[in-house]
Structure formats: structure tokens, C-alpha cells
Specification:
By secondary structure, the chain is α+β, with helices and mostly antiparallel strands. The protein is built from 15 helices and 15 strands. α10 crosses α11, α12 (352-367) runs antiparallel to α13 and α14 (413-447) runs antiparallel to α15 (453-492).
Length: 506
């Protein structure tokens, strides 16, 4: 029951010291308008006392690996050290205040961090922590269903920065040459296309060399001649006999609406819904969002959706841990059996695992951490340490029984109990010292607030809690179970052939 109340995530969120702010405007926005938005938002962000500086990138960078459109901005907000922040301010609270301060009509805000954002985009193609990928064959249907999914997810507590991708709505200038009109004036279609390329696009006519640098020299029409479709219609095209014919008489020029981006995956078109989990663990947000989507959204035949983002990594990690954890426990049990040559003795020592697990779970719950890969790595380390300390206790008990047998020969039940109590008391101080040393070594991790401490603390939490609970197990439960096993063997008159053991007779 306790474990069911603990959330889940792939990895604990790492505070990178920077925030990435990604506002996404309408696909039809112009570059100049989006740049003006970025300047206004940067000016607002700079006024926060926690911010050192702000740098924004509008639209696509000069690289083929950046598919950002004109409506997308990536702003890096570099933060000051935590000791310079106002008292009581946290990263989550700062993001919320910034989001309210820079909100603009028609602009969706996404808040993340630079490094994790790059990792998520490279691995899953999702720009946020969590995403829903909707697949189908029609972009219009996909966009409509994406809005329905976004509306359903907005009802889930902890879901924030929700943005259904708008694939349609981009404005394009469509120029279709009229072949009959061009033939009437004796103009080749290729000449019409060359004029269009020069007027709207650009032509590289040469390259200039300045030292070791090379720069292309590009030519195109001045802005006043290409800003308006009507002005483009006045651009002249040279005919075969030297006549100058306006482009408007040779082509149909009009503005049309179309998709701003077209994404495909697994042979189908894809539209994403982006969101983040704020104030709640991602696993619980996804679980509740899945119920809301199933309850309110009906997909046509041939359409389906998958959860993406860090959730994909979490699913893969869980599937591997379902194999790794039983293998770890199995290897520990086999080693114990090879040591004691007894299934019961090996199971007795392995009882340290559930006791250690209980303490780790309780401390994890008290500190408010979620299950993650880091936490389960801590549990694996804890299991080995707990079993090792139990083995040492059993060795002490075996030696105490051996000493008692050497003193009195054949042991009675009373003699056996005295030997177990002596061995347990003899191990009390070393065991307390061992656990105290482990706890003292782990406590500084919980006091640290440096970069990376957010990941290390959840990893150390199971070890700290499990060592404390295993202390009670080793000092109390292990001697009792050891005594039960030896009394049972004593009453049955079975000889004990395990290493470091004694022969018990009536």
C-alpha cells in the first residue's frame, strides 16, 4: 500500500542552473512579429532578480538539424546562484511566476531545461517532458483529435504547458505559371521560374573571399517589390522579342493556407500534444491523463496514439528492471546456498532484503521522492549491503554456538538459547557502529545543494532508510530465526553439515 502512494519518473529532475523557455506562436506569424514578441518577453524575464541574462533564438538556426519554424522561439534563461535568490523562492515557483509574466494571447509557453530538452528531442522528437504522439492518415483529422486530447489532459491535476501542435494554418504564396499565357508571349516556363526565384528567393551570383572566409553574394528584389502579392504581379519577365511582360499576366498569384510542418513516423502522419508535469510526478499525471483520454476522446479507425517523451525511457527502464531485480535476488540466493548448503539457511539470510526494502520505502515516502532508475539502483546496492551484514551476524552466532558446544559438549535447547543470546549481544556494538558509519557517510549528501545533488539524494535515500531498518532485523529478527532453525534441527536430531556450523544432538 505504501509503494502504491509513491510516484514514478524516469530520472530525478536535475537542476541545470538554466531554464529553456520555448514560446510557440501561431504558424502564420511573420518572422518580424515573432522577433518582436521575443524582445518583449526577454525584457520581462530580465527583470526577475533570479535571472543573470537572457538569450533568445527565433526560428531555425543555420543548420539542417534544426527543424524549428518561424513561430518557434528558444530562450535560454541563465539563473544566478541559489544563494542570491530571494528567500523562499524555488525553481518550480519561479517558472510559474515567469509563465504568468510572459504570457501573450495566442502563444503557448513550454518550460524545460537546455540539456534535458536536447536529449528528449534527439531520442523521442518531443520538445517537452511528456508528449502524446497521434498517428493517422489525414492532417486535419489529426489536428482536431490533438485538440480534443489536449482538452482532456487539461482536466488532469499536475498537467501544465499543454500545447497541441498546429500543423495547419501556415500562409503560403502560391504562384502557378500559366503555360498558355506564357506561350502566347513566347516566354519559356523556365524563364518565368527564374524570375520568381530572383524576386522572392535569391540567386548566388558569386563568392567573395576575405582572408580565410568565403561569403556568397546573393541577389534578390528589394523588399518593397516583393512584400505584397500585388507588387509581385508587376515584376517584369523578358520575352523572346524583348518585350517586358508583368508576372501577373503569366501566372496566378495568391495566398493559400497549408500545413506549417508535416511529421511522419512509422509510415503514418504524426501530430503531437506537448505537456509537462508540474507539482506532481510524471507517472501519476500520465496515468490520470490516459483515463481522461479514454473517457472523452474517440479515435477513428486507423488512428491511434502513444505516450512519448521521458515516458518512453521510463517504460524501457521498467522492463529491464523487471528482469534485473529478480536476477539480482536470484544471484544473491544462489551464493548464499553455495555458502551454507541449505535452502532454509539461505532463505533465512535473504530475509534481510524485505526488511531493508521496507525502511527504504518509508524514507522514500517521507522525503517525497518518486520511483526512478536512480532509486532502484540504490535499492540494488542496499540489498547487497543488507545481506552482507546479515551474513556477518550469522557467522557470529555460529561461532557462539561452537564455543558453547566446546564448553558443554552436546547442546540442549537452553544451552542453544544462551549461545545465540551471547552471539547477538557480542555483535550489537559492531553492528551499530557499522550502520552509524554508513548513515554518517550518507547524511552529507542530503545537506548538499550543489549541481547533481537532485539525482544523488534519491539514490542514497533507499540505502539510508534500508540500513536503519536492517539494523532492527539483524539485531532482533536474525537471532530469533537462527534460534528457531537450530531448535527445529535439534528436536529432529538432524546433524548440521553446513560450513562454520556445529552438530546439534539431543
Amino acid at each position: 500500500m505504501l509503494a502504491s502512494g509513491i510516484g514514478s519518473e524516469f530520472m530525478p529532475p536535475l537542476n541545470e542552473g538554466d531554464i529553456m523557455f520555448m514560446p510557440i506562436a501561431d504558424p502564420s506569424i511573420s518572422l518580424a512579429q515573432n522577433t518582436e514578441y521575443a524582445k518583449r518577453q526577454d525584457a520581462v524575464l530580465k527583470r526577475f532578480p533570479e535571472v543573470a541574462y537572457v538569450a533568445a533564438k527565433v526560428a531555425r538556426a543555420e543548420t539542417s538539424t534544426d527543424p524549428a519554424g518561424l513561430n518557434m522561439t528558444e530562450t535560454i534563461v541563465h539563473l544566478k546562484p541559489l544563494d542570491q535568490w530571494p528567500r523562499g523562492m524555488t525553481l518550480a515557483k519561479l517558472k510559474s511566476e515567469m509563465d504568468r509574466a510572459v504570457s501573450l494571447p495566442g502563444v503557448a509557453n513550454i518550460w524545460t531545461q537546455p540539456i534535458v530538452n536536447r536529449i528528449d528531442m534527439l531520442t523521442t522528437g518531443i520538445r517537452s517532458e511528456i508528449g502524446v504522439k497521434l498517428f493517422g492518415s489525414d492532417l486535419t483529422v489529426l489536428e482536431g483529435k490533438a485538440r480534443e486530447i489536449a482538452d482532456a489532459v487539461r482536466t488532469v491535476r499536475g498537467a501544465s504547458d499543454i500545447y497541441p501542435e498546429q500543423v495547419t494554418g501556415g500562409l503560403y504564396l502560391d504562384i502557378r505559371p500559366n503555360r498558355e499565357a506564357a506561350a502566347r508571349y513566347g516566354i519559356d516556363i523556365g524563364e518565368v521560374q527564374n524570375v520568381i526565384e530572383t524576386a522572392i528567393g535569391e540567386n548566388n551570383i558569386t563568392t567573395t573571399i576575405e582572408g580565410r572566409k568565403r561569403f556568397p553574394v546573393r541577389v534578390r528584389y528589394a523588399p518593397q517589390f516583393r512584400r505584397d502579392p500585388r507588387e509581385l504581379g508587376n515584376v517584369l519577365v523578358s520575352g523572346a522579342n524583348g518585350a517586358q511582360i508583368p508576372l501577373g499576366q503569366l501566372a496566378d498569384i495568391r495566398q493559400v493556407s497549408g500545413p506549417s510542418t508535416i511529421n511522419s513516423e512509422n509510415g503514418l502522419l504524426e501530430v503531437s500534444v506537448l505537456l509537462n508535469a508540474r507539482g506532481r510526478d510524471p507517472g501519476s499525471v500520465i496515468a490520470d491523463a490516459e483515463k481522461a483520454i479514454q473517457r472523452t476522446v474517440k479515435l477513428p479507425s486507423g488512428y491511434y496514439y502513444n505516450w512519448s517523451g521521458q515516458f518512453e525511457s521510463e517504460v524501457r527502464a521498467k522492463s529491464r528492471l523487471r528482469i534485473v531485480m529478480p536476477v539480482v535476488l536470484g544471484v544473491i540466493y544462489i551464493l548464499l546456498f553455495l555458502t551454507y548448503r541449505s535452502f532454509l539457511e539461505a532463505a533465512h539470510v535473504l530475509l534481510a532484503v524485505p526488511f531493508a526494502l521496507t525502511g527504504g520505502l518509508y524514507l522514500l515516502w517521507l522525503l517525497g521522492y518518486n520511483f526512478s532508475v536512480a532509486v532502484w539502483v540504490g535499492f540494488i546496492a542496499l540489498f547487497g549491503t543488507a545481506v552482507q551484514t546479515t551474513v556477518v551476524m550469522v557467522i557470529y552466532l555460529e561461532e557462539a554456538v561452537a564455543r558453547k558446544r566446546k564448553e558443554r559438549g552436546a547442546l540442549s535447547v537452553t544451552d542453544l538459547r544462551e549461545a545465540v543470546m551471547e552471539g547477538a549481544l557480542l555483535r550489537l556494538r559492531p553492528k551499530v557502529m557499522t550502520v552509524s558509519t554508513v548513515v554518517a557517510g550518507l547524511l552529507p549528501i542530503f545537506w548538499s545543494h550543489r549541481v547533481g545533488s537532485e539525482v544523488i539524494r534519491p539514490l542514497a535515500t533507499p540505502v539510508l532508510g534500508g540500513m536503519v531498518s536492517s539494523l532492527a532485523h539483524v539485531l532482533i529478527v536474525t537471532p530469533v530465526v537462527f534460534l528457531w532453525l537450530r531448535e527445529w534441527e535439534l528436536r529432529r536430531g538432524q546433524p548440521d553439515n553446513r560450513p562454520h556450523s556445529v552438530e546439534l544432538v539431543k
